[in-house]
Amino acid sequence: MGITDEIKLSYQHGSYLTKLIYINIAVWIVVRLAAVFLVLGGNENLAFISWLALPASFGQFLTRPWTLITYMFLHYELWHILFNLLWLYSFGKIFLEYHQPRKLLCIYIFGGISGGIFFMAAYNFFPYFQHAIAFSQLLGASAAVITIVVATAVYVPNHVIHIILIGPVRIKWVALLSVLLYVVNLTGDNAGGNFAHLGGAFWGLFYMSLLRSGMDISTKSERFFDRLFNWSKPKRKLTVEYNSGHYRDYSYNKNKKAQQEEVNRILDKISTTGYETLNPEEKEILFKMSGKNK
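RESULT FIELD:
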């Protein structure tokens, strides 16, 4: 099984944490390649990024409303995407210890939307930003990622993580320090980004506080995003084959049944612990059976 097939299976059968990471990486690669070809062709104006990034101006936003979603998957600088994906992976893994994968997807999307709204609101309502509103825009997954960090901290505040050069730290202090840094830098170089981070933090706090009280406001949204992100996922089928109107021989059907039971076991394992927990033999079986079902 080649690397392309491995990536394809990992995306199709991986958790939403895997899917979010792959989507962010894929968008970054496409954006960087497009930028390289444009610059080599003598066009250094990367205006296409503005059609994916979230503008600060409400007027500009009305002409490109999709940016409230696309911005949270958009990166340009390598350090930017690396930092965000490291945080997403680290805290996403903790989140998945306590919640279903599709809840992670839902909180990522709505946290990003909340961050985008905070960003636009700040630039349109605070006089401090009036001079910059026409050319300011937001991109990056950090608002969505901090939503996951804060939500996890609210749900399990005493969960301990280990930070290099520091040691064991309770997750609530990581979240609290992050939010404090965003607040004290609201007039700094990344003021708009910090407002977006606070928007994400707000949604993480709001959503998880309701969830802890027994109110889940994301159930319908989870089903919608689940269908949206799995439109191309192979359906799980159990079929009975015929030959000229008669059953195939007993031995053949017995082998087919055993193979299907093994695939069902692997799919159950994926739904419980994620594609990443499969061993090489299980991945190879899944790959071969996926090819037969095309």
